[in-house]
Amino acid sequence: MKRISLFVFWTCFAFGLSACGDDGNSTSAANGNDTGAVDEMSSSLDVSSSSVVPGTSLPSSSSEKVPLGSSSSVLEGSSSSVLAGDTTKVAYSLKPYKGPLPNPHKGFTLLTEGEWNFIPEFEYGPDKNGAWNLITYGSGYQRWDELNPAKGVYDWSVLEDLLNVLQKHDLGYALRVFPYSPSYIRNKDTPASEYDWTPEWVYKEGAQKDYAIFQDNGARAQVPRWDDPIYLKAAKDFATALAAKYDGDPRLEYIDVRTFGEWGEWHVSHLDGSDMPSLKVQKELLDHYASVFKKTLLALPSDGYGEIYTYALSLGITKRDDGFIGIPGTADSLVRAYEAGLPTIAENIGSYERMLTFDNKSYMRWTPERWVHEITTAHLTYYVLEQESDCGFQIYNEHKDLADSMTHVIGYNFMVQKAELLTVTGNTETVNTLNITVKNTGIAPCFFDIYVVAEFVNSEGKVLEQLGETIKVAKGTFKDEMVRDFTFANTVPARQTNVAALPGVSVALSIYESEEAFKSGKNPTVRFDNDGLQANNKLLLKP
User: Which of 27, 88, 90 is nearest to 426 (CA)?
Assistant: First the structure.
């Protein structure tokens, strides 16, 4: 397991991430192709084995012309030989990006329950809470009985409204569907419908219920019998319908498997008289979810430990834990999911104010140092920042610079460490070759496919033509601390204008989530961690 030490982190934070990078020593061959062509079959590059050189700064810009040594010289990877001519090399100036750098499919989330979260009147909304500058997705819960009001009947309207509002604000959503919520058991007279969110029709079908004592106030409460076959069939049927509707929906980041226990967290710690189902039943439920969800990430909730955790990982189901910061060992437990090649997900154990009162005996107190340590230890990809609407607001107000910096740390983070454009001009053609070295300076792999694009742009940022091919990097292959070299090249016949040589022309780098998005003219969604980011999310290389 790789762990970022606090010393390294604070050194990076104080002096800039550029001082904690490394120069890639491996070199990729140039790929010759027709000018501006996009290869329909994008190719993945091999991983560079460049060594880390602590303290190495990013290169400054330079430009030089070097005569070729022989009239029969051949540029490796070029489609044809280059006769005697000149070689021009431009090394681009690279600096780290300052400020928060949220990127998709990673990072922080705040509680989002509807359109009202975004209205100016909401005291913790985007207009008043700087923590919204950090987040990339929303989170919250839905009631099973409201989504599935009758047998075979599903009402997605409220969820759809929420997903559409979040998408409008460029945010995804982490979905949790609760079968039971004991927080709403106020006293012995509380109607069961206010806390038992298992659909009433399930009981009418014959599912059995138990009665338990809610430890918080001594009230006698109705509880589903978690291993009842009718209950289990209804839960599986709901999972099938949910997958048919939302598996692969780009608006969803992940879905918790919330079938058993209080808040669906796979425990009955506060209910005397209720028992969790057997391990066999738990595995059968996970098997069903894994069989119907083929694309969207699934997460096992907090109290799914031990053998069921191991089993979930074997199915490609990751772990989400809400004991973060407070419960010792939570971060170490999440490492198992990271080592299994899955994103890790955490949520604070309680509100920010409550975590500040812990005595470091039963529960650990929130401190900036502990925050960084736990995040990096767990190799977090996703972090639910708050238990209550004011948590993110308070953390950000008191620790703005640290919170901003952690957007560069959580999940993947791509920094261009070196970029050079080599132009070889011969008698019959000119070859432009851009070599870049990129390091994932985050603490987790990139868990989705990315497509890297290089383009020649004019002084106004308008695209003149693509340089070389689009390069696909498969999900999970660009791991944390990894350095990779990418090469983009094109050839220009002698009688045609070489766009690279025109006044004011530079290179823009982009990362797309799909090749179709690039081809259709959309702006990239993933940003490099370098100074020079444009409003359209492209990185303008500055000579």
Answer: 88
Q: Which of 377, 397, 394, 375 is nearest to 386 (CA)?
A: 394
Q: What are the C-alpha distances in Å from 101 to residues 97, 134, 508, 528?
A: 8, 7, 18, 9
End-to-end Cα, the chain, rounded Å? 39
Question: Reduced to 3 states, what is the DSSP secondary structure of residue 219?
Answer: strand
- pLDDT average, residue stretch 280-285: 98
Closest CA relative to residue 231, chosen from 281, 266, 191: 281
Which tokens is 116 given? 């009202």
Instruction: Number of helices (H) and strands (E) in the chain: give both, helices first.
Output: 13, 23
Q: Cβ(346)–Cβ(410) under 8 Å? A: no
* CB-neighbour burial class of residue 177 (10 A; exposed 0-12, middle 13-18, buried 19+): buried
* Both tokens assigned to 128: 């008043």
Identify the band that residue 455 occupies on the pLDDT scale cut at 50, 70 and 90: very high
Give me the helix-helix angle, 6-15 and 368-377, nearest 10°: 110
Is beta strand 380-384 parallel, antiparallel or unpaired with respect to 344-348?
parallel
The single-letter code of the amino acid at 396 is Y
pLDDT tens digits for range 323-381 = 999 999 999 999 999 999 999 999 999 999 999 999 999 999 999 999 999 999 999 99
402 and 375 Cβ atoms separated by less than 8 Å: no
**What DSSP character marks residue 130?**
G
* Placement of tokens 């909304």 in the chain: 125
DSSP reduced 3-state for 322: strand
∠ at Cα 286 (113, 266), nearest 5°?
60
Alpha helices (H) along 407-497? none
Contact 322, 384 (CB under 8 A): yes
DSSP H or E run through 97: none
